[in-house]
Structure formats: structure tokens, C-alpha cells
Amino acid sequence: MCPALHTAAHMIPPHALTRLAQEWLGEDAPNFDPAGVCVGSQEVEARLLCKTPHSVLAGSPFFTAVFTEVGCTVDWVFQEGTEIGPDAITLTAVVRGPARCLLLGERPALNCLARASGIATRCSQLQAMATVRGWHGEVAGTRKTTPGFRLVEKYAMLVGGVSMHRQDLSGMVMLKDNHIWASGSITQAVKAARSVCGFSSKIEVECCSAEEGREAAGAGADIVMLDNFQPQELHVAAQALKEEFATLLIEASGGVTPGNMATYFSPHVDIISLGCITQGCPVVDFSLKVQKPVAHSSLQE
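RESULT FIELD:
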């Protein structure tokens, strides 16, 4: 059985895996686990089955961390980031350990794997759409993530082949409409942000018109987000801004879905971000089935 390795997995600090696994297990079993009495601690084997064909496997480091925390082992059949085959039911991994411990980790581990694989599958589909149409920009996620689950969801984006965008507020300065209104103007907001973030952080400004984009770029913004533009309006505004500010990055966001994303592709658009990568994303159906002991019959001579 192959190891579940992916380049992105090397970014996850071991202590983060341990912390998350302990939090999820603590949430599900903060006190006693009465059902553990029913099964005891005899060694058992369980098979992880994927029941959503053509899904991208993501989240195996977190799945394994949960079972490691309760004294179980996991052997993977598929490599992290690969597409699980076309069959209706596919063996994906084998988990072994004490029965009560294996069942203790079952639901937290499955929740994580189902969610991460769902996000990676959607991301893979979106990136494939961009590749087929020859668009060379970056498809990106957003900060519209599940509270407490961002690390997993951002990791799943990478496994699926898209950009995470900024991980949190400190990752990059993004000045949205409320920042602009509260500070008085785009120019003033950019100036204030630059005074504290210095050279090491990029500044992005959310703009609702080409004029706002021009003001943001002129004030020193590194990225202009053209928000809620119709595709044709976006193409015209992006081209005009690129002609005036050659090094400016243009992001398209707002109203973009898997169904209409292709209409936003343009040689003048560098990034297209979609909230639906994490919001409303279908999960992948996994189940964990403990194998019944094989009955051995004795032959009498």
C-alpha cells in the first residue's frame, strides 16, 4: 500500500496535526464513551470505502493524525491528490487498532476527509476548466471558510490545484468597501495600510468601478479586485488598467460560479476567486466498515 504523501502536506507542522486531532476527538468525546464497553479493545481491521466516483483524495494527513492519536494505524491504497477510480465503491485505506479506539476516531476522521476531498475535487474541476481553455491566471479560494477548519480547507485547495489566496488577515492587506468608507477614501486607506505593512506585504483594494481601480493603483495598491463586474465590463476595465499600470495584478471576484467562470477568463485578469470553493461545496461520501472475524471450520478425519 502506498504512502499518502503530497507536497502540500509538508507545510503542515506536526504539532498542528496533533492539536487539531485532539480538538476534534475532544469535541466528540469530552467525557465517557459508553459504546466502547460494547466492543472492547480487541484488535480489528476496518476498510475505508469511497462511494463518490471520480473524487480527488484530500485530507489524509488529518485522517491519519486522528487515528494515530487513538493508537491506530492507517495504510493508504491511494496517493493524496489522486483521483479515486470510477467504481461505485472503492477501497481507499485500511485502518487497524483496538476496536473501541478505532470507533472513537471514526466520525472525526471521516468528517475531515469528506470535507477536504469535496473541496479538492471542486478545485480540480475548476483548474481543469482553466487549463482546457488556455487561461494562465490563478483560480483562488477565499476566507469564506468554516470557523476552526480553515487550515484543512486551505490545504484542500492546494491539493486540488488552486491558490489558497491569503490565509488570514495578516497574510495580505485587503481593503474592502467598509475599510474605504470608514477611512474616507481609497487613497487614504492605502496610505495608512502601507505605513504599517511596509515592503513585506501586498495591498489589495476591492473596487466597484474602473475609476476606483485607477485610484487604488495610483495610490500604490499591488492588486485591484474588480468586484461584481459583469464579464464584458470586467474585460474592458481590466485591459484599461493593465495598459496604464503594467505591473498591477487584477482579480475578478463576486458572482463567479463553476457554471460561468469561463466567461471571466481574460489575458488581462490574473486571479479569479470563488467563495463556492468552500461555501456549499459537496462532500465526498466515505464510510468505514469494520471487518467481521473470519470463521475457521475444523475438518474431522
